[in-house]
Amino acid sequence: MTHADPPRLQGDADLRNRPDFAELLRALCRQAVGDVHLDLSEMDFVDVWGAVALVEAAGALSGGDLVLHNPPAALRRLLDLLGAHPGLRLEP
User: Where are the membrane-spanning stretches (predicted)?
Assistant: First the structure.
């Protein structure tokens, strides 16, 4: 993650770093007041468990949405396959 506004996640979210990715999302959401924005333009790969972690983080927010900016096309398809996600928004 880089220190930008919104935070920019980089690299992969897969089996190798699943616990770290999920904990990062939980930490960002715990600190949140309102929407949480993440820039995913530099994510190379997000597996199904990474997609589920994003959905779970969105569901844990109270009073705001998890807004994913520039998610990779493969992640968009995964999220479509997983169905409706209250509290999760995708921005171009």
Answer: none
For the 8-91 domain, the top CATH level (class) is alpha beta
pTM: 0.89
Give a three-class secondary structure readout of 32-75: CCCCEEEEEEEEEEECHHHHHHHHHHHHHCCCCCEEEECCCHHH
> pLDDT tens digits, residue range 14-36?
999 999 999 999 998 887 888 99
